[in-house]
Amino acid sequence: MAVLVGTIISAVCDVILEPYINGDFTAGGGPQLGIITEADLLATYQVVITDFLQQAGLVKRACGILQQFGVSTYNVINSANDVQEVFSDQVALFTTDGFDLDRENPVWQQMVGTPWEWRQDRTKMKSFVVIPAPDGTGSTVYESTGLGGYGTLSAFNNGTISISFTNAGYGTLSADSGTMALLPANLGIGTLSSIIPAQGNLMPVATAGLSTSQVYMGSIMEALPDSFACYIKYGILAKLFSADGELKDNQRAIYCHARYLEGVNMAKAITKEMIGSRGVK
Amino acid sequence: MPSIPLSELQARVYRRVEDNSLFYPEYQVTNAINEALQVLNLFTGYYQTTLQIGLSVANRFFYNIPNNMIFPMQVYIDQRMIYKSPLSDTCRMVTNFLRNDQLQDGSPLYWVPIGIRLFVLTPADTTGGRQLEVVGVVEPPVLAASTDVAQLSDSWMELIEDYAFYTLVLTEGGKIFADASKLFQKFQKRMGELQMWQLQINPRYFVEVENQK
Predict the structure, then answer these.
(1) How far is B97 from chain A (nearest CA, A)?
(2) A68 within 8 A of A137, measured Cβ to Cβ
(3) Is A239 on the interface with B (CB under 8 A)?
(4) Alpha-carbon torsion angle B164, B169, B173, B175, nearest 10
(5) Strand pairing partners for B136?
(6) Cβ–Cβ contact A103 with B under 8 A
(7) Based on C-alpha coordinates, what's the Rg of chain B?
(8) Where would I find the H helices in chain A?
(9) Is A236:A253 a contact under the CB 8 Å cutoff?
(10) CA angle, residues A213, A216, A220, in degrees to nearest 5
(11) Res B145 pLDDT > 60
(12) CB within 8 Å: A92 and B92
């Protein structure tokens, strides 16, 4: 997965006759005619790829979240979209919703115990609720997705730090005897070599979103295989050709939108048939 | 299966655009050909391979899928096939599949894909050191030099030529593109026959009447 955003933008510019010289966006100068700016193109790219990732659900992220006593609502990490499964202490929770809970057990909000259900309705965006609220605070969070770790490394247990880095770690060790705590000042950046499910904690599995809101020409297209880059190109072109302005062209907008949908449908088919339970075995 | 050099594919595409190398520089033609290969591969799963991803680690559940694999289809452990179990089904039926308190003889029985980049072996391998292999569809080779070759069946030649042609003339718009884009309808029909997906629904595409005149 190493297609640069600039390569996609450059291909878009070729189609709208705003080419970079020899298609080389690294030479600088930006689009030549000024019909559209590089910043507009990058913004459109971000809208399109976010939409694609949200619709397709091809790539999923597993992340560790510290389980806390009596706290039932948790936020998912920024780079995740739609929570699909939640594990508590390495056990999968069942999905439910507020309506069912209210009918089955009106005092469910007062309950404390080992979580066995989760829900996403009637709560704020990008958060989920576990039921009942945990009766203990988790001990250790291990995390890795192979695409860089995101989240909070927050816990320690009986003097054993359960984090293994293949490369140097950055942060502050707050103590060197007894119980140790690793307190990074900022989020950890890099690739963790393995993932181990969170022990005593929560681990939502969610569809991937963009891990950063800052996209540059030199950024790598995130979370999608290279072969899907052309569909992102068509998504951008569909938006450009359908918007009022010099580039408006119904026929090409229809075509590009059809191609974008082709990519979304393809990703959905892979998700359902290869990754999910439907279709070819 | 014939090996077709990039130069021959380029020549065939250039013939379709009246050898207009000024309006369609060589890099654009090459990009269109590579895009055609990628899209055909997504539809048909033409480029499949087996990749060794190292040894299993004792009591480890999660393993990464190599980056050049588009999606995994099967996992082998010590050359023994293990069954795929989708995440949603597994979560409903074996809620503790991420714990090592299940009865087992030490060897994983199932692999659970978590998206296309990650999978779980369950139960986790208690001893480790077993060879893991993943079979899946990988990215097609990117053709760059004129001597680079693509292994293609003859029936693909016309598809690639057509695809590259209507991808290039998208730049022109108007009637020229409208006419060329009818080849996309033909492409969709052909993919309906060749594709490996049961659930893939190709979106409807039509050419507006005024563009046909």
Answers:
(1) 7
(2) yes
(3) no
(4) -100
(5) B49, B72
(6) no
(7) 23
(8) 5-15, 38-56, 98-104, 229-242, 250-270
(9) no
(10) 90
(11) yes
(12) yes
Strand A133-134 relative to strand A112-113, pairing: parallel
Q: How many helices (H) and strands (E) does chain A have?
A: 5, 10
Query: Cα separation of B79 and B59, whole Å?
Result: 20
A74: exposed, middle or buried (C-beta count within 10 Å: 0-12, 13-18, 19+)? Answer: buried
Is A90 in Cβ contact with B96 (below 8 Å)?
yes
Q: Which residues of B touch A276 (CB under 8 A)?
A: 86-88
Residue type, A273: E
Residue of A46, A49, A80, A47 lying closest to A65 (CA atoms): A80
Contact B202 A265 (CB under 8 A): yes
Supply φ then ψ for residue A280, to 5 degrees: -65, 150
For residue B93, what are the contacts with CB-CB under 8 A and spacing of at least 6?
A: none
**Is the separation of the CB atoms in B108 and B81 below 8 Å?**
no
Q: Which residues of chain B have a CB within 8 Å of the CB of A251?
A: 173-174, 177-178, 181, 207-208, 211
Pick among A227, A233, A252, A277 to test the B interface (most B CBs inside 10 A): A227
Which chain B residues contact residue A196 at CB under 8 A?
A: 60-62
The ipTM value here is 0.93
pTM of the model: 0.84
What residues contact residue B179 under an 8 Å CB cut-off, 6+ apart?
A: B212
Beta strands A91-92 and A80-88, pairing class: antiparallel
Q: Write down how long chain B is.
A: 213
Give the tens place of pLDDT for each residue, A47-96. Answer: 999 999 989 888 888 888 888 899 999 998 888 888 999 999 889 999 99
Q: What percent of chain A has pLDDT over 70?
A: 74
CB–CB contact A60 B72 (8 Å): no
> Residue A251 and residue B208: Cβ atoms within 8 Å?
yes
CB contact under 8 A, B196 and A280: yes
Q: Say whether B60 and A196 touch across the interface (CB within 8 A).
A: yes
